[in-house]
Amino acid sequence: MTTLNSKFPTLAEQLGVSIYDNLISLILNSVLYGIFIALVLVSTSGFLIPKTTANTSGHAYIIIFCCISITVATMTLNVIVPLGSLLSYVSAMPEPSSSYLIWTRIGYPVPLLVMIIVSDFIVSWRACVMWPFSRYIKAIFMIFMMTNIIFQCLWALSYMSARVVQGILVLGFNSHWPTLLLSNALGLITSLVINILGTLLIGVKAWLHRRDMRVLGFRRKRLTKSQHVLILWIECGLGLCVLQVAYMAIQLAKAGLLASPGGVIGPSQVNSLRNRLVAVIPSLVGLYLIIVSLIVKLKLSAMVGEEMSLQTITLSYNGRAT
């Protein structure tokens, strides 16, 4: 007779893998968090204090400040979650406590959920700023963002419920798996579409802007052409697309293993890689966003140079077209 434990890992096996993954996640997130805080201090010094100039937009400073504040809070939580799970487990050894299950199962998806929504919002906002006179672009991004938020929240709720059931009853999450897989897949696809579309729109406008600047006689001497193209793609959001694709690939790999005959979860290497990647994605997204801010502050931006501001970029092409 086939038992449950022949199909699914025992609670002790789950906890052993989870403890190890939490320890690795804590170390990686702590290192990334320290780098992130240092870059925040450098990039925001004198940047978040609005200056009264013709090219300064007050609402832009508010949006940037809110996004950075949310990112700092989320990355802090992303360090606290693995630390809290480790401490709660050690304090309740040899049996796992309810607080451990809450830390590892419920606290796990929150940083990822917040950072995906924040990063998608920033990409959508920047694309709309670069194309301020296109109502269709604003409408498309608004629809995609609302759909994305719904799918991401549905995934988080399904994940929390499924993982608590799995942790307490050691039954897996067969009853929750279709909803979890569907919401996760739809959320990933929607988020990836937002990032790809936003990256392309920002890249096109930046290329048009640089072409206009060359026609006007402006030349950038600090960077080579290859460095300029690389920074341009970094600013446009290519890194976010890469993270999304990597996350989707790991999720699809795990889904394929879970759907394999016999119901076996699959090689531990895939599960561990997936757990660590998901754990550090919020930190990588936050680090990526602050690196873009630092590029702008150091005047290495491919879109905001010494001679132009973000607002004049949006007008350079639209003004020429009228």
Q: What's the gist of this structure?
A:
This protein is an all-alpha fold and 322 residues long. It is built from eleven helices and no strands.
Helix content range: over 70%
Biggest sheet features: none
Q: Got a strand count?
A: 0
How does the overall form come out from the CA principal axes? globular
Cα Rg: 22 Å
Helix-strand pattern: HHHHHHHHHHH
Class derived from helix and strand content = mainly alpha
Total of helices: 11
- Tally of domains: 1
Mean pLDDT: 68
The residue ranges in which pLDDT falls below 50 over 5 or more consecutive positions are 1-13, 48-56, 164-175, 261-267, 305-322
Report how far the terminal alpha carbons are from each other.
77 Å
Give structural notes.
- This protein has 322 residues and is an all-alpha fold.
- It has one domain.
- The chain contains eleven helices and no strands.
- α2 runs antiparallel to α3.
- The longest helix is centred in the middle third of the chain and has 39 residues.
- 30% of the residues are buried.
- The N terminus and C terminus are likely disordered.
- Keywords: Membrane, Transmembrane, Transmembrane helix.
Structure characteristics:
about 325 residues; mainly alpha; 11 helices; disordered N terminus; disordered C terminus; transmembrane helix; membrane; transmembrane
Secondary structure elements and their pairing?
Layout: H1 4-7, H2 11-44, H3 58-91, H4 98-106, H5 109-130, H6 135-169, H7 177-215, H8 225-236, H9 238-258, H10 268-297, H11 310-321
Helix pairs in contact: 2-3, 2-10, 3-4, 3-5, 3-10, 4-6, 5-6, 5-7, 5-10, 6-7, 7-9, 7-11, 9-10
